Amino acid sequence: MARYTGPVCRLCRREGTKLFLKGTRCLTEKCAVERRAYAPGQHGQSTGRRRKASEYAKQLREKQKVKRIYGLSERQFRNLFERAIKEPGVTGEALLVALESRLDNLVYRMGFATSRKQARQLVRHRHILVNGRTVDIPSYRVLVGDEVRVADASRELVQVKVALEQFGRGQPVSWIQVDTDKVLGKVTERPAQEQLIVELYSK
Predict the structure, then answer these.
(1) pLDDT at residue 2, as a whole number
(2) What is the pLDDT of residue 154?
(3) How far is CA 27 from CA 12, 23, 57, 139, 202, in A?
(4) Inter-residue contact 113 to 163 (CB < 8 Å)
(5) Is 179 helix (H, G, I), strand (E, B) or coil?
(6) What is the spatial distance between Cα 181 and Cα 150, in angstroms, rounded to a whole number?
(7) Around 6, how many Cα atoms within 13 Å sit in the side-chain half-sphere?
(8) Which residues of 26-65 are buried (b: 16+ CB within 10 A; e: fewer)?
């Protein structure tokens, strides 16, 4: 399935909540979800009058949220889920770790890009190094102890400078350390536990 290239605010409206697909811009702009708090399309305003959603419908919506937040296709998400099933422990936790360990997600989390979409572009255009080696695969899995940084020649890119300026000097999440002066970050531990969508693909 081709990657969605339409207006991202439409996806937020479909899920009924901000997905922050524009990254930090979602914090400053008045979102379409706030202006039109109903699903897109000609039947969007009548959604609230429909019968109560089934458990399957709720699970489907949660899965769609996760896919859209991380910018994955259905095939990519299914492949991640199937690998998570084979890992020991809680499947939801393994799925979360796989999602959070993607290189494009970490570039975004570390503040080198203002959105995951922009982070994916930086990776594809070979601006990102992992342990000193150029990696151009957005789905590349970064391990604990790996160092991610922007290539020296790419530090002057406008989008990187803007992202770092918006990011400030705070740490993004507890399991990542970032040095904004050197434009590098390091994964210090495994992402925190959280149960994600499992039941839908278990049927």
Answers:
(1) 57
(2) 94
(3) 14, 8, 29, 26, 36
(4) yes
(5) strand
(6) 11
(7) 10
(8) beeeebbbeeeeebbeeeeeeeeeeeeeeeeeebebebbb
